[in-house]
Amino acid sequence: MKGFSTRCVHKGTLHTEIKSVNTPIFQTSNFLLSDEEYKKIIEGKSNKINLYTRYSNPSRNAVEEKIKNLEYADDAITFSSGMAAISTTLLTFLKFGDKILTTYDIYGGTTYFLNKILKNLNVKIEYKDPFDTEGIIDGIKDAKVILFESLSNPLLKILDIEEIARNKRENQIFIIDNTFLTPYNLNPLKMGVDVVIHSASKYLNGHSDLIAGIVCGKREFVEKIRDNMIIIGGSMEPIAAFLLERGLKTLGIRIEKHNKNGYEIARFLEGKKGIKKVIYPGLESYTKYQLAKKILKNGFGGMITFVIDGGDDKGVKFMHNLRIIKEATSLGGVESLISMPFNTSHAGLTDNEKMKMGIEKGTIRLSVGIEDVEDLKEDIENGLKKIR
Ligand SMILES: *Cc1c(COP(=O)(O)O)cnc(C)c1O
Prior knowledge:
This protein has 388 residues and is of the alpha/beta class. It is built from 15 helices and twelve strands.
């Protein structure tokens, strides 16, 4: 079973004695106990049996098996949200006084966790630009945890993962949030990363109808995180596992289409009147185009960031003019969604902070869906016409 889509469809499915084609939804909080289970509990192996759904559940195990396979991980854990996955993982490895090396160019929720929770635990936080490989390698030296996104939010900066992994020391933990690229476009664990995190609310589920998270990676690390998932309690509901397993079956064909549409729309936007700048890793104008071409062999993803002439007001007007592309935060669904960082994900920052990060006035983030690309082009063209 080698092909990506074959594995998306079949890996992990639990066929029970009832002979169901699909994994049943084990919507139960607890399981019947007998001597075998009591023995495991006494041996301290409660997480190896079906005991209580906060610990584990067969519907979740099926999804974990599938993800484990798609990301080339030893082990995987499902979570109730991407933030539950991120917070549990960071709390597992960072102790009082430790340093985390990360970036401002990261999901807002992650920044809030660092500033509101980890700072109070006296964790030192150092920020580097994802493009600044040398600076990152310099900052690694005394870091316990290294945390970046494989493609950052919202400026779509790619990370030289292999070079950073080569310079990492034995006792340091390199964590990558792979939400924007998915295992179809990149497998960070094959590049020397220790732990991969996903907000499965985005591409992995793909239908904008679920909040879920994933952690996967090397066994020694994932086991520690699972112990804490059970204690902290961000475990996934069985019905959510069903939705995620169902979504994952089409991950291959969906991302193939997101990649194609993303590339076409990025090229369509570039050089268009009224558009100041387009950021997309598949464009030759992209700052680290050579690196992107080297590591993103299957495609460059469905996320595009662009800057519209005339600033934030013009951007808002442009978005209001769209008919097919919908105004909403979040990303990775089958439908195209559009938003502006200034009044959504980065609303908490001052103008100066946004400028420092590189978020210009008029910056728009587009999550290109799987619609027919000609319809999307027409929608954008009409939107632009009305603001010229
Ligand atoms: C959405 C998102 C998260 C947070 O995930 P939730 O499922 O919303 O908790 C984390 N990282 C990235 C890159 C995201 O896009």
